[in-house]
Amino acid sequence: MSLITKKTTANHLHFSRFLYLIKTLNLYHKHHSTLPSENPNLHDVNDPLLTKPPSSLSLGKPHFVVPTNNMIPTQPSSRRSQSLYPHDDIVSSNKMITNYIRIADLDSARKVFENMAVKTTVTWNSILAGYSRKPGKLKEARELFDKIPEPDVVSFNTLLACYINNSDIKTAWNFFHRIPVKDFASWNTMISGLSRNGQMNEALELFSIMREKNSVSWSAMISGYVEANDLDSAFDFFNKAPIKSVVAWTAMITGYMKSRKIELAENLFQEMPVRNLVSWNSMISGYVECGRSEDGVKLFRRMVGLGVRPNERSLSSVLVGCSNLSALGLGKQIHQFVCKSPLYFDTSVLTSFLSMYCKCGDLGNAQKLFHGIRQKDIVTWNAMISGYAQHGLGERAIGFFDEIKNQGVRPDWITFVALLSACNHAGLVDLGIKHFESMKRDYGIEAMPDHYTCMVDLLGRAGFLQKAVDLISGMPYEPHPAIFGTLLGACRIHKNLELAEFAAQKLLNLDPNSAAGYVQLANVYADMKRWDQVARVRQLMKEHKVVKTPGYSWIEVKNVVHEFRSGDGIHPDLELIHSKLYELEKKMKLAGFVPNLEFALHDVGVEQKEMLLSRHSEKLAVAFGLITTAKRAEIRIFKNLRICGDCHNAIKYISVIEEREIFVRDTVRFHHFRNGTCSCGDYW
Predict the structure, then answer these.
(1) How far apart are CA 166 and CA 138, in angstroms?
(2) From CA 246, how far away is CA 273, in angstroms rounded?
(3) Residue 557 DSSP code
(4) Most buried of 91, 238, 334, 342, CB within 10 angstroms?
(5) Alpha-carbon distance 161 to 172, whole Å?
(6) What is the pLDDT of residues 462-493, one digit of tens each?
(7) CA distance 35 to 32
(8) Could you read off the pLDDT of 197-212 as tens digits, one per residue?
(9) H or E stretch covering 302
């Protein structure tokens, strides 16, 4: 079923224009209303552009406050006649300043401000808000505040928010106590600032002495406790809140999803009286991050079906879900859907699509999309370099890195993870070492765990096991479990039992429940026919109640994902699949294929080992693809573990016999089989 039901072009255009109008009106309303923003992730609940002048609800002692419409004449600029913005209308100019600030064009806003003959307190507050929103502009904001002839409560709240946005909580706290008249926004801004910085005791103290509290006050406390991973306190405040805003509901859902308490999040989501886009996004991203991408994709479909228009966050989450499921067809549908909306020109959205195409094996569309993005940021470059790395195109990835430098784009730590991964997959050991050493020396980037993991993999796969161990020993912090898992995998490739036992012991000391540690060690013993040790490791797994992750492969055909496990006995087309495999086995043996029994990790006879290998999930998925897709069409298979060596060799033969291009993505990289060869060059 298509993601979006078909509509006439006229209706779609009308709907898009209507939504754009509503969005514009909502933005204006949000910036001129005393009501709190329903989206804590998009707006600070105490953003000065979201507040009004003080009312009779002020919580402090009564003080005289200058009205915000107080007109303050200033000398016109000597360059007024040359100004690009010669506006005498104060209201019009104030609106222009506000609009420029909303699109982060502070320079243009400042030009309008400087050329105004008469400025009101609203004018000063608007330009002050621009500096408040821009990180690193605290000094300028303070200087501007000091120049305001008659600041009002909005002026004070704006500078307070600026201190908090620049993480100067101590100064913010002192400044808060100097505000002559505090309204709801003053208190809520300070509570939110303390909450966001993990100072929940101080936030609670301030919350307790508030004479009156509104929904924003309660939501700030609930969100703070969620951020601090104190779900018990968050739930307690949620239950006590007299009015539960959508922000509070969404904060609780987010907290439950982060703690992987999915059922509790689902229950709250169903009970919500009103949902907004952030609520939907929280559930969708939560599903994806908890490994339930299929549920996330289903919820996205439901959201769109109800007429809720996705934003950048929605698309980013659902596209990660598509990548996890390798649902290329659905990803393309969403791409077509977004092509008709203003989001299509958003760099972050296009980068999400680029990443999805790379991870789903469609490097051609990823490249086209990359070259069509007008404003590329470092995230865009990183996505493309990672894509080349995943597909084993190390030289192209390195070429892109050189192009980044030529264009003056500064790489970040993620760039180097992608670059080192590219060197790893291509076996470019010397170049990988060179780039690893240049990170700190040339770019001031400290090596992180991911960089060390890449380097251990690079050295280990190339056979430099002792160098990999030495690198781990020289790390400036304690090694993490993944790094020993990587070393253990390299030990299996090179059949180094001594180091394998060392790596496995280190891994299990750090993570006693690591199934990978036990399985990899058992595989090393199996490779060496040490069946008694294999049995011992498996017994240890039972004693520690460690369950091995079952291997499975899947393929998407006509927008339906078909999953296979080794020795599958469930799929409805199993008889046809086995028939195709039998046909292929005869042709492969005539072509010279010999099963590699080393990958049948069981102490059984030769014939039984051959039977076990012939029913591996990769082969089942390939056979299904051959009988359900058009002749010579590409086949894309995905596996949750590394591809088995026997399957890798078999698919090379199948690609020749069937005259097909076959893509297999495992947990490490893509393998592109064509005419009897693989893009990995048998190095993986």
Answers:
(1) 7
(2) 8
(3) E
(4) 334
(5) 8
(6) 999 999 999 999 999 999 999 999 999 999 88
(7) 9
(8) 889 999 999 999 988 8
(9) helix 293-305
